[in-house]
Amino acid sequence: MKIVTQVKLMPEADHAAALRSTLRTVNDLACRVSEEAFARGVPREYELRKHTYPRLKAEGLGAQAAQHVIKKVRDAYTTLHANIRAGNLGKPKSKRRIKAESKPITFRPQAAQPYDDRCLSWQYDQQTVSIWTTAGRIKNVRFVCSADALKMLRQHRKGESDLIERDGVFCLIATCDVPEAETYEPDGFIGVDLGIVNIATTSTGYQAAGRGLNRYRKRQLALRAKLQKKRTKSAKRRLKERSRREQRHVKNTNHVIAKTIVTEAERTSSGISLEELKGIRQRVRLRKPQRVALHSWAFAQLGDFIVYKAKRAGVPLVFVDPAYTSQMCSQCRHIDKRNRVDQGLFICRGCGVVAHADRNASHNIAQRGETVWNAGRESRVPATP
């Protein structure tokens, strides 16, 4: 299982200048390689290397750095084409898709640059790195991170690391290959119903209310609008200071919720049943005031956090079809649109049971999860006559 670990570099002034110059140089050259690739119809990596590698070497890049620049460009086009095939950029004649297909991919001056073990070496005891730059290799660049992150690097770091600059701060994002824990046989499943009013509701009684997070988002949205309207230097400075603050807050909230759910499942030797919510933004139709709440909530992020934490803990996890989970009674299985009286109230038209709507849905998801798990465990091989 691949997990990334981020550390913060603390370079001296001259080292920081060398790192900044390196990022700008390699990303500027990546833009030129991208133009060459676009002009030639985006050939394979080996073909692209024949046309661009000598020029990159002539610009002063080392062999490994030149290879990484070419690979970065080719990977960017691979991702673009995958998004186009998946329909993430709209229909064939949409403005967004035409714009993406009609010009070469460009790279920001601070965009990430991959480093392998030939260009970057780690000294964990001293908490320093030795890293290649266009001004030569610089050594003893100090980095800081948490004790858990350092332990993760020592035990599991493997593969490439990315150097990025964010708001004047340099970071290394290292790839760690963590072995998955052995999955145990679950004693039942915990159903997890995801939503906006309640971020997550489980069949065991845990409920993560979204009221505070939604209030925080509205406050941040109003503040951004106010500062953008002013358009003064101080307002722009405030906007820059607040950039990604909401994103970090939401990410931390999702981490806490995911850890709570996985810990409960591990403690009770249960599995986790999640809704398959891919494509929800394309399926759901809402009024304009409701779109901000739907499109700003990280549906996929919380699901991804639960998945990787469950894999690390060895907790069984299944995805189920979410259709009618909010309209079906978890007691008698009666389905009726009128069962869902309002956002928080469920009254079954069949048996008369009264329950919290999200709690009822979580029980349905748990039951479906157990069905999916048993169906996958049962043999489908015909019996021998």
Work out the count of structural domains.
2
Residues in helix, % = 40-55%
Distance between the termini: 42 Å
Number of strands: 14
**Share of residues in strands:** 15-25%
Give structural notes.
This protein has 385 residues and is of the alpha+beta class. It is 48% helix and 19% strand. It folds into two domains: 2-177, no CATH class; 189-207 and 252-377, Nucleotidyltransferase, domain 5, CATH 3.30.420. The protein is built from twelve helices and 14 strands. α6 runs antiparallel to α7. The two termini are 42 Å apart. The model has no long low-confidence stretch (mean pLDDT 88).
What's the structural blueprint in terms of helices and strands?
Elements: E1 2-10, H1 13-39, H2 45-58, H3 63-86, H4 95-101, E2 113-115, E3 120-123, E4 128-131, E5 138-144, H5 147-156, E6 157-166, E7 169-177, E8 189-194, E9 198-202, E10 207-209, H6 211-230, H7 233-242, H8 245-267, E11 271-275, H9 280-283, H10 288-296, H11 299-313, E12 317-320, E13 345-347, E14 354-356, H12 357-377
Parallel strand pairs: 8-11, 11-12
Antiparallel strand pairs: 1-5, 1-7, 2-6, 3-4, 4-5, 6-7, 8-9, 9-10, 13-14
Helix pairs in contact: 1-2, 1-3, 2-3, 6-7, 8-11
Notable traits:
alpha+beta; 7-stranded antiparallel β-sheet; Nucleotidyltransferase, domain 5; 2 domains; 12 helices; 385 residues
Summarize the structure.
It is built from 12 helices and 14 strands. It has helices spanning 13-39, 45-58, 63-86, 95-101, 147-156, 211-230, 233-242, 245-267, 280-283, 288-296, 299-313, 357-377, and strands spanning 2-10, 113-115, 120-123, 128-131, 138-144, 157-166, 169-177, 189-194, 198-202, 207-209, 271-275, 317-320, 345-347, 354-356.
